[in-house]
Amino acid sequence: MILKDPFNRPVSNLRISLTPACNLSCIYCHKEGEKSPSNQISAGEIAEVLRVAAAFDIRSVKFTGGEPLLRPDLHEIIKSVPQCMESSLTTNGTLLADQATALKGAGLKRVNISLDSLNPKTYKKITGRDRLSDVLSGIDAALEAELIPVKLNMVVLEGINDHEIDDFLAYVRGNRNLVLQLIELMHFNDCTYHGDLTGLEDSLASRSKQIITRRMHHRKKYCLDGAEVEVVRPLHNTEFCAFCNRLRVTSDGKLKPCLLRTDNHIDIRGKKGNELEALFREAVSLREPFFR
């Protein structure tokens, strides 16, 4: 049975935050609104969430953080993903080189890797750490382990890294297993580096040989001379909301119906079976487009 919200949007994707803890300190990070890693949802609770999600025909799950590779039970969690469900993971990549092969063996399908600069000094300015070389090694390891396609998430920061977009296009060009995602900065923590990506997207469209509209998110993929790039713009974006198919789980065990709201979370700690199924239905019933 596929769950649909009151706006007839089916829920087919689950996003689970495993921890708010991170080994970087990015200047724009909002930590999914979470503050403490002391009350993280357990591997057993996650397995039950995944079982119920599969029963509702949710066919993909993405694990996030914080930095999910800091969870010592991450491989156990990935192994608990039902066979009917595809699993992916978003990571900053600093710890990926040593874990990519084992993650693939546990059943992980692919990874998104956060990378906001190809310049070591700029990378350190954004993240607070000198770890760019570790991330680049992690990308190579992910490609070798066939955690593909590897999507590189670049948060575009006005006046800091927005001049590097062509460098990123050159980095992914010619490798069909690398996709660049340019992400519009959300307004959190009074970060002042937000830039409207409308002009950028118009420029990409004018330069592209082919433009593909993705079925899942109705997001456009621009193909520029062997480089693939997507633009993620959740702010003031009615189309982003209209095609949202995602239900989120916070690291402290709450169902989160909307990325942009924090006032309608549903606590699922310790719940299982029919009770958890009912809470899934309740959370989906609370979903509504933030922008419409």
pLDDT < 50 stretches: none
Going across the major beta sheet, what is the strand order?
A: 7-8-9-6-5-4-3-2-1-10-11-12
Task: Summarize model confidence as the mean pLDDT.
Answer: 92
Total DSSP helices: 9
Second rung of CATH, namely the architecture: Alpha-Beta Barrel
> CATH H-level name... which superfamily?
Aldolase class I
The CATH class is Alpha Beta
- Tell me the overall shape: globular
**How large a portion of the residues is in β-strands, by DSSP E?**
15-25%
Order of helices and strands: EHEHEHEHHEHEHEEEHEEEH
Could you give the count of β-strands?
A: 12
CATH level-3 fold name = TIM Barrel
Kindly provide the radius of gyration, computed on alpha-carbon positions and rounded to a whole number of angstroms: 18 Å
Largest sheet: 12 strands, mixed
> What is the share of helical residues?
25-40%
Task: Please give the domain count.
Answer: 1
Distance between the termini: 27 Å
What does the secondary structure layout of this molecule look like, with pairings?
Layout: E1 13-17, H1 43-55, E2 60-64, H2 74-79, E3 86-91, H3 100-106, E4 110-114, H4 120-127, H5 132-144, E5 150-156, H6 165-172, E6 178-184, H7 198-207, E7 210-213, E8 220-224, E9 227-232, H8 238-242, E10 246-249, E11 254-256, E12 266-267, H9 273-285
Parallel strand pairs: 1-2, 1-10, 2-3, 3-4, 4-5, 5-6, 6-9
Antiparallel strand pairs: 7-8, 8-9, 10-11, 11-12
Helix pairs in contact: 1-9
